[in-house]
Write a structure and sequence with these properties.
The protein is built from six helices and 20 strands. By secondary structure, the protein is α+β, with helices and mostly antiparallel strands. It is globular, with a radius of gyration of 22 Å.
Length: 337
């Protein structure tokens, strides 16, 4: 266990960051800077980018742009985004460390904490907190902001590369999980009630392909693919019913692929979206007025098995890691139907 001291506060309060520089290079001649940015950063329309131009937030080739105009291929742009307020997030405690051998660092990430900058978060991230007490450690993979559980980090670049290869899922084929796999990931999730004919202990395989569909807020969003979509990603999840309650079911999910929002989409595809998920509805399609970062669902990276020459547990076997279930899991699924 590392002797590094972790912050004691439960939450970082909402606070303004220091702003950020977004650098871009124009690849193809564009008729206007505002149009270029509206296409590049779809979260803001052309009128908003016109306001940012007028405010002097954008420069081209080192000169501030105070009016809209055409851009040439090769132009270098910088958007000086002013500071913005980031929401409060949980803080990692000493008890968050599942394993620390001086190189490999495995954490039990709390729900609500983003791993890397994205979606309005720049400094209120797990990466920023890591830099404060384990400056050489970097996450090897991601978990969604509201997904809790096992997050693998490593200090050495060679370890990160090797672990990333183990955790990265093949896009060439979807293979069945087997005891000889070098990596096996198991999640726990709370879903809306599953079909009545789904028996306790029964495992069902979900292979609904995942693709992009139109979305009014993001132009496109990941969800259950449209039939015949040539760009759809093959996906495979195994859902095992563990507990059935009046309002929720607890399931174990083994994933053989790691597609965007895969567990959320596959649970919805079988007619039982994750409990509290505001985005995905039965069938696996997305609500038009909701963004992927919206929280409320219950998903936990519960167990992880890793095999390799340098990854051995105390008995010399493959490394078996587990993050305890949040109390809410037992409370929500304990009410008998």
């Amino acid at each position: 266990m590392s002797s590094a001291k972790l912050p004691r506060e439960d939450w970082l309060p909402a606070a303004f960051n220091r702003g950020h520089l977004y650098r871009d290079r124009v690849q193809v001649q564009a008729p206007s800077a505002a149009g270029f940015y509206a296409e590049r950063y779809a979260h803001s329309d052309r009128s908003v980018w016109m306001e940012r131009l007028a405010a002097g937030e954008i420069e081209c080739n080192g000169q501030r742009l105070l009016a809209d105009g055409p851009l040439a291929a090769g132009d270098r742009l910088v958007w000086h985004r002013p500071p913005w307020q980031e929401p409060a997030v949980p803080v990692l405690h000493q008890s968050s460390i599942v394993l620390d051998d001086g190189d490999l660092l495995v954490l039990n990430k709390p729900s609500g904490l983003p791993v890397l900058p994205a979606g309005g978060f720049l400094e209120h991230t797990l990466l920023t907190q890591l830099q404060g007490w384990a400056p050489q450690a970097r996450p090897v993979h991601r978990l969604g902001r509201f997904t809790s559980g096992l997050l693998v980090c490593a200090r050495r670049s060679a370890s990160r590369a090797w672990l990333s290869a183990q955790l990265r899922d093949s896009t060439a084929q979807v293979a069945e999980a087997s005891p000889g796999q070098s990596c096996r990931k198991l999640y726990r999730a709370l879903t809306q009630p599953l079909p009545d004919d789904w028996a306790l202990g029964e495992t069902r395989v979900v292979t609904a392909a995942i693709g992009r569909r139109p979305h009014p807020l993001l132009r496109q969003i990941w969800c259950a693919a449209e039939p015949g979509d040539p760009a759809a990603l093959p996906s495979r999840s195994e859902l095992t019913l563990l507990e059935r309650g009046a309002e929720a079911c607890q399931v174990e999910v083994a994933i053989a692929t790691g597609r965007p929002h895969q567990i959320r989409i596959h649970a919805a595809a079988v007619g039982a979206p994750l409990l509290g998920d505001p985005l995905y509805r039965p069938g696996g399609l997305a609500e038009p007025g909701v963004l992927p970062g919206a929280g409320g669902y219950w998903l936990h990276a519960h167990r992880l098995n890793l095999r390799g020459p340098t990854l051995r547990g105390p008995t010399g076997e493959c490394l078996q890691l587990e993050a305890p279930l949040p109390q809410a899991f037992s409370k929500a699924s304990s009410r008998e139907k």
